[in-house]
Amino acid sequence: MVISSSYVAIIIFRIFEERNRFISKLNLNHVKSREQISEIFTNLRYETNKKRFVRFLKDNKKENPEGDWPDHEIFKSKKDSNIYLAILEEQWLGLNR
User: Fold this and answer.
1) In contact, 56 and 44? CB cutoff 8 Å
2) Which H, E and C letters describe the chain, residue by residue?
3) Residue 45 has pLDDT above 70, yes or no
4) CA-CA distance, 60 to 10, in Å (whole number)?
5) Residue 41 half-sphere exposure, CB side, CA atoms within 13 Å?
6) Partners of 5 in the beta sheet?
7) Do 16 and 46 form a contact (C-beta atoms < 8 A)?
């Protein structure tokens, strides 16, 4: 049975989320694509943890993620975490000033 790295990352985030541990304790070296980021982000339950995840990406994911977003609906929400992720995407694309 082959388990995708996205699935493993989601399980790891769920475990940390359920235990209320700070998201920065995770190693995201295996998260390389926008699809993986989207999957993790949408599977986090709480807005606070989504914001922590985006902040962690901003602080630790210096290279531009690969690929395209699987669903652009993620950027249509008015929630802070979604806005922060959209701002981070602008930085990755070099669109911010």
Assistant:
1) no
2) CCCCHHHHHHHHHHHHHHCCCCHHHCCCCCCCEHHHHHHHHHHCCCHHHHHHHHHHHHHHCCCCCECCCCCHHHHCCCCHHHHHHHHHHHHHHCCCC
3) yes
4) 18
5) 29
6) none
7) no
pLDDT tens profile 11-23: 776 666 555 554 5
Backbone angles phi, psi at 96, to 5 degrees: -80, 155
Cβ neighbors of 29 (< 8 A, separation 6 or more) are none
The range of the structural domain enclosing residue 29 comes to 5-93
Tokens of 70: 């699987």
- Token couple for 3: 């388990």
Q: Is the dihedral of CA 15, 17, 23, 25 positive or negative?
A: negative
Digit-coded pLDDT (tens) for 32-44: 899 989 988 888 8
Residue 10 structure tokens:
């989601």
- Count structural domains, the chain: 1
pTM: 0.71
